[in-house]
Amino acid sequence: MTTTFKPLLTQEDINSTPRLYAQDGQGHNATVHHHLFCAAIDWFITEIDEDGQEAFGYVKFANQEQGELGYISISELNNLLQERFYGANDLRFLIEKDLHWTPKPLKDCIN
Fold first, then answer.
1. Using CA atoms, how far apart are residues 108 and 111, in angstroms rounded to an integer?
2. Can you give the pTM of this predicted structure?
3. How far apart are CA 35 and CA 41, in angstroms?
4. What are the tens digits of pLDDT across the range 64-103?
């Protein structure tokens, strides 16, 4: 069975997410609109550019107590997913979008 690659975020997801800098200065009160995850990393997306290629949010590695705010390359995550998971069947590169996510303040996601 062949699975077709689907980008992590749909155009509807991109359109419904605030643009970069829209929540600037809100820190942990910024609203997280999307949660992406793999076995060792969680990405909490607060803002995204109009092309859906670059986002801003909080990244948390499973083996670290704290994560950090910063830019997230959605295009790079999509490439890893397409080439390594779908292309090479390497489960280490399975990245998923939380389909049951409800937007909430970042402070509620990282505590």
1. 6
2. 0.92
3. 11
4. 888 999 999 999 999 999 998 888 888 888 999 999 999 9
